[in-house]
Amino acid sequence: MLRMELQFYALFMTVLSGIGVGLLFDLLRAVRRFLRPGPLLAALGDLLFWGAATAMVATGLFLGNWGEYRFYVLVGMLAGLALHFTLASPAVLWLADRALHLLAWALGLLWGLALRLVWFPLRAVAGLAWRLA
């Protein structure tokens, strides 16, 4: 039997993995609400989510209990998911929603600036060519 500290560490890592999967799922939900993708992009997002979730859980299992799958691993991940969805999910969704809107605003601002930087010299050259012709 392992020392008690190692068992608590393994349980903590599985709970942390469950919280991480819940956080990842909330981020996917926020992106889907913001972008409203069609069926093909939604399927691609699901595929990316499951790939990232699998990597996160595998990393947690290898760091926590050397890759051994035991019953407490399932209990710990479900406890982590439950903790995330009851305590943090509304705040994460709100923050992700605000961050996505801020990112869209900043990208729109940069796009407008880039267009002005391109069109201003082109209009100046076109105006000069018009006067010379």
Specify the biggest β-sheet.
none
Distance between the termini: 91 Å
Q: What shape does the CA trace take?
A: elongated
Number of helices: 3
Number of DSSP strand runs: 0
- The low-confidence runs, each spanning 5 or more residues with pLDDT under 50, are none
Class by alpha and beta content: mainly alpha
Order of helices and strands: HHH
What does this structure look like?
This protein has 133 residues and is mostly helical. The chain has helices spanning 4-35, 39-65, 71-132. α1 runs antiparallel to α2 and α1 runs parallel beside α3. The relative contact order is 0.14. The mean pLDDT is 88.
Features of the shown structure:
133 residues; mainly alpha; 3 helices; 91% helix
Chart the SSEs and their pairings.
Layout (H helix, E strand, L loop, with lengths): L3 H32 L3 H27 L5 H62 L1
What's the short story on this structure?
The protein is mainly α and 133 residues long. The chain contains three helices and no strands.
